[in-house]
Amino acid sequence: MGPSGISDQLAEAAYLYAYSMDEAYKFLYETTIEPRLPFNEFQKIRDLADDTYTAHPTINNDTLHLQGWFDVAAEPVVVTVPDFDEGRYWILHTMDLGHYTTAMIGSRVRGTKGGRFVFAARAWAGTVPEGIDDVVRSDSDIIKVMGRIMTIGGNDLAIARQYMDRWTIETLSQHVGVAGPPRKERDFPDPESTNWMQRVNFVLGDGSMAAADADWLEQYSAIGLGPGRDDFTDMQIASAERGRTLGMKHLVDLAPAMRNAGDLLGTREDLQAGPRDLFAEGTYLGQWGLPPAESVYMKVESGSDGLPINGSGGKRYRTRFRAPDVSEFWSFTVYGNDDRLMAHNAINRHSRGDRTLTPDSEGYYTIELNSDVESNADHPNFLPIPEKDAYLILRLYGPSKAIQDGDYAMPVIEVVPRD
């Protein structure tokens, strides 16, 4: 029991509950508030993310990204997405500040057909204009938006960028051509001068977040959690710091056991009552990741010898497998274990998948993994790995029900014997 009468177990549980909200808020502050970027505009990543992109861990190397934040406190926003060419994966994905997915609108459910979509606060009771395909509600008034448009790079990159440039965001008043209300003004707490409870309590005061999380907040009110609260005792602050230390150790220790994101990423309906450490792990390992209905993420950190995947000393690996059952596409991407980011290589190649590989006569795909970029640069099956501990993420977009249920085994990363 800590000096405040709050047990270490309760302090840790409170931090794990709050972790995803705090990380979401810090990402909002870092990407939008601190650089003074506007809400309700797309921040476009017009190239495939690579080792130069460090804004958040484990980003994919398969799609262009349209990122940003909606502010629907004053009024809803309308997003227009164009129609696409056949076979091109795309998605309009949104999440609230609790790190729950609120929308997955894309090729998996709509094929090539785009549309117009309204995003609104839970309490909004206005009139939906004609020509709107769907209305999406959010418990937070600030909503994370991530658009993804698949490209294999090269000449295809220009085509994908043309589609990207036809995505638009308007406030509802702009869309219908009338004067709109002023945007809500907020005093955003600076992460450099606040603790995690102050930031999370700010988030809980946004929209209907506190009402949605009422059952959880009842459990953690003793430590100081509650919408807008900022009146902590010294003992509560000490307990919160112990909770942060214990909680982060738990997330780091838990990470190697995570193989499938089914319990980590999803909608509030799916995960609201689930274990908070697993939900927090979804943020820790793959912030802003897609739920299993859209994309299953599988992770492998070791080769067939049981040791960490590592390209130092000329060590080589190979994996051979049949194509997984997906409706959209699949890909493997390599990340460094130390920072969960892609590592630099001379040919800027970080992934291989069904759009860049060709099966052999028996229907198997093969990927060769090592750090010898100079000798293998021209081999389409070659995937560079760094000379440090690394891991691979297999992304399965539009996975079958069997894959969603965990019935697909990650291909073994075989160690290639030395000559």
From TrEMBL:
Lineage: Bacteria, Bacillati, Actinomycetota, Actinomycetes, Mycobacteriales
DUF1254 domain residues: 39-168
Top-level taxon of origin: Bacteria
Boundaries of every DUF1214 domain copy: 294-400
Protein name: DUF1254 domain-containing protein
UniProt xrefs under Pfam families: DUF1214, DUF1254
